[in-house]
Amino acid sequence: MSHKLKIAGWISAGALAGALTTVSLQTVARGSLAPLPLDELQQLAAVFGMVKTDYVEPVDEKKLIEDAIAGMVSSLDPHSQYMDKKTFKEFREGTSGRFVGVGIEISQEDGLVKIVSPIEGSPAFRAGLKPNDLITKIDEVAVKGLTLSEAVKRMRGDPGSKVLLTIFRKDENRSFPVTITREEIRTQSVKGKVTEPGYGWIRISQFQERTVDDFAKKIEEMYKQEPNMKGLVLDLRNDPGGLLDAAVAVSSAFLPENAVVVSTNGQLAESKMVLKAAPEYYQRRAGADPLRHLPAALKTVPLVVLVNEGSASASEIVAGALQDHHRGTILGSQTFGKGSVQTVRPIGDAGIKLTTARYYTPSGRSIQAKGIVPDVMVDETPEGNLFAALRTREADLDKHLSSGQGPESQDPAFLKAREEAIKKAEEAARKAPVDRKIPEYGSDKDFQLVQALNQLKGRPVLVSKTQVVEDKNEKKEQ
User: Fold this and answer.
1) Global pTM?
2) Span 108-113, mean pLDDT?
3) The PDZ domain covers which part of the protein (predicted)?
4) What is the domain partition of the chain in residue ranges?
């Protein structure tokens, strides 16, 4: 099985763009090719010839062929993609947890780039940038009108190069320039702390190459501080995915040895896999098990797993495995529903990301276009979660792959909730803007975390009265 893990491990995610992708990277193409449809290929060649000779102006042959390949692959589903040399390089950087840039986590607000948090120790952190700062210009280019990915590309560059950011700090009502020297950034995907005597919180923001080691280290630190842990919260909210083997490892930390974590199924023989809670299924390198020093109590400590609409792919694998094995209580909102596997095959310096399999939980449930439905539905604030129905999930994406487990249809209750949310959004848009901030995850004002701790302590939990499940084949409401 270990030889399969060497080619099955890459997951890329674009939560802000809604394109959440689970992938495995294969460095060797298939040994055999399917029969080629000669008539259709002749037709394609004829069209290429006409465009080359008859178009109003000369065309770039290489670009024309690349665009044809891109169109063919992207027409399959939202996650299959042709990647040129630059995109392929960025893709590989994204899964390593390393990139060259300024070191900020960002989102978008009113067409500007909003700093969610500077990464500790990064150039942005040292330059004094703060959460909620708005970036209005990158060098001399106005951010207004740029997509988030375009803004990211402008802020990235070569190590040692400089970028000029114009910052608007709302609480001080002033703008100022900051020149930052780019350097390699190593993102920290694991946070954790003892929230109060006997209870801990550990958050995984993305499953990257260092996640398993960082997770194990953080758990060991927490148990050293609090040896008599009575309950633990595993926070996977807004975790868009990451490396498959990292998801298997985190699941294995809580599950009995050799328990099934996830299975995959597709046309290729190598896409039919069953991954279990054992080192040979998640070790990236030869050597000692990265989970070997975890306290034995982690296998039995009462557990609550926090998820929401932004939890996708690898995080859904973890939540589904723990739910099926009754290892913890899943709490929050229905997850994104990204349950397909994309295999990336290099083509020279470029590559193709192709959907090759679906993910299934240990009980055989398809995650694709369904997601994980929490055991306890809880809103993100005490006031509710009225706009959750407007958030895009896999099932809302054009040409999305079906679950493969029966026809899809949206429940009338979900459609009604979406209509009501649209009306509320329209009403809010007519009013004066209000700076409504969701409290920082892990803080004492984190409503869902408070409810998770209540669940662990056996206290009443304020369950949602508005959330409904998107797929009618799942349970309807909590």
Assistant:
1) 0.77
2) 83
3) 88-170
4) 2-31+41-96, 98-186, 190-339+359-457
